[in-house]
Design brief:
40% of the residues lie in helices and 22% in strands. It has 166 residues and is α/β, with parallel strands linked by helices. The chain has one domain: Maf protein (Alpha-Beta Complex). Helix 1 runs parallel beside helix 6. Bound molecules: inosine 5'-triphosphate and magnesium ion (MG). Inosine 5'-triphosphate (ITT) binds next to strand 3, helix 4 and helix 5. This is inosine/xanthosine triphosphatase. Its EC number is 3.6.1.73. Its cofactor is Mn(2+); Mg(2+). Pfam families: NTPase_I-T.
C-alpha cells in the first residue's frame, strides 16, 4: 500500500513523508475541481476531497491537501484542508491552521491573483508556496507550511488508525 498524494508541491509531499514514514509516498498532478485559488472554507475543503478522490487507486491511499483563503467578519484568513481516501473508500477530513492575512491582499485576490504569487511579490522571493509558505512568513518561521500540513495529515492518519480499531 502506498500513499498517492495529489500534488507535486514539495512542502506537501515532505509533510506526507514525515507522517506516513513507513509508506512509499508518491506525488502526482490531480485536479481539485475547484478554483486554483479557493476563496472559502467550503471550497478549500472540497478541493482537498476532490484531490483525494482523484488520486485514489484501489489498494492505496489517496491524500488531498488544499490551501485557500476565507473571510471571517470582514477579515481575510489563510485556511487549509486535508482529505484522506482510505483503502475501504471512506473519506476522512481535517482542517489546518488559519492565520490573518494582510488587508492589502484582498484586492489582488479579487483581481484573480493566487496567494502564492501575491506572497512572492510581497516577500520579493520566489516560490514561497513550496517553502515556508505564507504561514511561515507571517509566523516568523514558527510554523512552516510543511509543518502545518504535517499536522493536518496526522489528524487524518490518526482518524484512519482509529477507524480500523472499531
Ligand atoms: O501544486 P499545488 O498542490 O496546487 O500547491 P499550491 O502551492 O498551488 O497550493 P494550493 O493549490 O493548495 O493553494 C491554493 C493557492 O493558495 C496559495 N497558498 C495557499 N497556502 C499558501 C501558503 O501558505 N503560502 C503561499 N501560498 C499559499 C497557493 O500557492 C495557491 O496559489
Ligand atoms: Mg495549486
Amino acid at each position: 500500500m502506498k500513499v498517492r498524494i495529489g500534488s507535486q508541491n514539495p512542502a506537501k509531499i515532505q509533510a506526507a513523508q514525515e507522517v506516513f514514514s513507513g509508506y512509499e509516498v508518491e506525488g502526482m498532478d490531480a485536479s481539485s475541481n475547484v478554483s486554483a485559488q479557493p476563496t472559502s472554507d467550503a471550497e478549500t475543503k472540497k478541493g482537498a476531497i476532490n484531490r483525494a478522490r482523484n488520486t485514489y487507486q484501489e489498494g492505496d491511499l489517496g491524500l488531498g491537501l488544499e490551501g485557500g483563503v476565507m473571510t471571517i467578519e470582514g477579515q481575510l484568513y489563510l485556511c487549509n484542508w486535508g482529505a484522506l481516501m482510505t483503502d475501504d473508500q471512506k473519506i476522512l477530513t481535517a482542517s489546518g491552521a488559519r492565520i490573518l492575512l494582510p488587508e492589502e491582499f484582498s484586492a489582488p485576490l479579487q483581481g484573480g491573483l493566487e496567494l502564492g504569487d501575491i506572497m512572492d511579490n510581497y516577500t520579493e522571493r520566489q516560490d514561497v508556496r513550496s517553502k515556508e509558505g505564507a504561514i511561515g512568513v507571517f509566523t516568523n518561521d514558527q510554523v512552516s507550511r510543511k509543518e502545518m500540513f504535517a499536522h493536518v495529515i496526522k489528524l487524518l492518519y490518526g482518524q484512519w488508525e482509529y477507524s480500523k480499531k472499531k
